Amino acid sequence: MTRALRGAVLGSLLLAAGGAWAGENVACRTVTTKELREITGVPLADGVPVGVDGDTSQCGWAHKAGGYQVTVYFKYAQGAYDQMKGLPGFAPVSGIGDRAMWSPVMHTFMAQKGDKAIAIKFNFVQGDQKTMGTKLVKLALGRM
Q1: Average pLDDT along the chain, 144 residues, taken 10 residues at a time
Q2: DSSP-derived 3-state class of residue 140
Q3: Domain residue extents for the chain
Q4: Strands 116-122 and 56-62
Q5: Do 113 and 75 touch, CB atoms closer than 8 A?
Q6: What 3 state SS string does 16-68 have?
Q7: Given this structure, which CATH class describes domain 3-142?
Q8: What are the angstrom distances between the C-alpha of 56 and each of 20, 99, 140?
Q9: What kind and span of H or E run contains 76?
Q10: Are 36 and 44 in contact (CB under 8 A)?
Q11: Cα radius of gyration rounded to whole Å, the chain
């Protein structure tokens, strides 16, 4: 599965998970550009809303040279996490939110806290993405 296809599948599953929240772009407020730069070491431009659909929002941070490098998906839906855990390579990670998981295949870290789910997708391969994802998800969950 190509990286672009994995990202499309991730976004589609989060958009299909359903829920009762008509929203704004919460994803852009879950982590700051400064935090992303410090944790990833990537020179990112400020995050921009990629989309809002019902109870799901997405925000993308692009490399200053172009192209999205980090995408945050935020969802109010109990089922979002359950839908994602069937995708390639996801394994549970303990001690984060109500439950969390990481997939090196999908380059995605996901966590759930109550009825809120957040997924952080890395579109680059350098560095320890699991550690980066852990730090970013913990920050985001603290703001939810």
Answers
A1: 41 36 68 93 88 80 80 77 84 94 92 90 88 94 86
A2: helix
A3: 3-142
A4: unpaired
A5: no
A6: HCCCCCCCCCCHHHCCCHHHHHHHHCCCECCCEEEEEECCEEEEEEEECCCCE
A7: alpha beta
A8: 10, 19, 15
A9: strand 68-76
A10: yes
A11: 13
